[in-house]
Amino acid sequence: MNTPKRQHLLAACAAGAVLAGTTALPSPASADPGDGAGVQVTVDIQKKREPGVLALSVAGGSVALAEDGSTLLVRQFVGTLPKVTVTDTRTAEYKAMQWAAPTFVQVPSTHFNGSVWAKFYGNASAGNAPTSCPPPQAGEEESASRCARQNSSKGAAPSSCPPPQAGVEESPSRCARQNASKGAAVIFVHGAGYTQNVHQQWPYYFREQMFHNLLLQKGYVVLDMDYRASEGYGRDWRTSIYRHMGEPELEDLRDGRQWLIDHWNVDPKRIGIYGGSYGGFMTLMALFQAPGEFAAGAALRPVTDWTQYNHEYTANILNDPQLDPIAYARSSPLEFADGLKDPLLICHGVIDDNVLFEDSMRLYQRLIELHKDNFTLSPYPLDRHGFANADSWLDEYKRIYRLFEANLK
């Protein structure tokens, strides 16, 4: 039944799906839908577990909307819905922004027979997708840099590397770009451990996607990997971190680092890393266990000791801490803090009731005891695990950006 009321509801839902979040739909006070007036209606939009489906609560009812706005399922609705008007608070400047879509790439693994899917943000003006490298000619030795980009413009897309001329010996620098400084890169590490972030839909990490666009505009390239244990790749992938959280994931992140160096002419000394929650934990493990490989890192609300995290979550991976203390010890950043050599920024909400603020405070004290001098802590007194205050989000990303500008440029 395609009634005017249904059309209004579909329009409101579709617009709300674009705006996302909780969207207020105000209209004049009259409740007669026939005269173009109505009452205020709130559309609460939440991601559902089903792919491509949004759940919305409208005036006490429940509906489901396909993300492309094509299909509306009314599961429960009581009463009539007046005509409503969707508000759009985005500024003209925001609407005029050009957003670069990531490219989906496969990073070859040096630890198993396969690759790791990732989202890559390359230079928008040169094209996002790296070009393939032709195989070496018969008798020609392959090298990691044979297919490095040649042209000298910073951030340009990689080009195929021609084979050496007859009698010319292959060398590591033969295909490197001539007379050009290498670029900077950032690796983002998604949270939860089991999250899947490489997919063709609006990401859970939409703030990070906007931040990655900013980094791209400032001359960085960005890699966002679905490292081992991420959701959506099968049982073996998910359980690869059993009894050792932080090791397989770091192997994958280091492969991603090398992929950036080999294929995007990134300077090995100008690669940063950041992430929140589990991504913050992995940022710490990267800085502590691979010192010198990442020029700087930002660990946001990180777990530093799994013995005090949610038992149901952790015990499924590391067993009970009383029965398997080895698994917890080798998965704890606190145990490896002495490895810190590169600048570290820690950001954490003081009233976080998921990963306790105590985790960051314990690490902070440990770094003091180790006489480290290249770390900072930024506490957010009014925020929990997921910030609720826009000022806190802005402050956090400004600090991350300044960290990278100071150490990667």
Helices and strands in order, then pairings?
Blueprint: H1 4-19, E1 22-25, E2 41-47, E3 53-58, E4 61-66, E5 72-76, H2 92-95, E6 103-108, E7 115-121, E8 183-189, H3 206-217, E9 220-225, H4 235-238, H5 247-264, E10 266-276, H6 278-289, E11 296-300, H7 311-318, H8 325-329, E12 344-349, H9 357-369, E13 375-380, H10 390-408
Parallel strand pairs: 8-9, 8-10, 10-11, 11-12, 12-13
Antiparallel strand pairs: 1-2, 2-3, 3-4, 4-5, 6-7, 7-9
Describe the structure.
- This protein has 409 residues and is an alpha/beta fold.
- The chain contains ten helices and 13 strands.
- The protein has an eight-stranded mixed β-sheet, sandwiched between helices.
CATH superfamily of the largest domain: Alpha/Beta hydrolase fold, catalytic domain
Low-confidence stretches: 1-49, 124-160
How would you characterize the largest beta sheet? 8 strands, mixed
Name the beta content range: 15-25%
Helical fraction equals: 25-40%
Number of strands: 13
Short description:
The protein contains ten helices and 13 strands.
Please describe the structure with a list of short key phrases separated by commas or semicolons.
single chain; 409 residues; alpha/beta; Rossmann fold; 8-stranded mixed β-sheet; 5-stranded antiparallel β-sheet; 10 helices; 13 strands; 27% helix; disordered N terminus
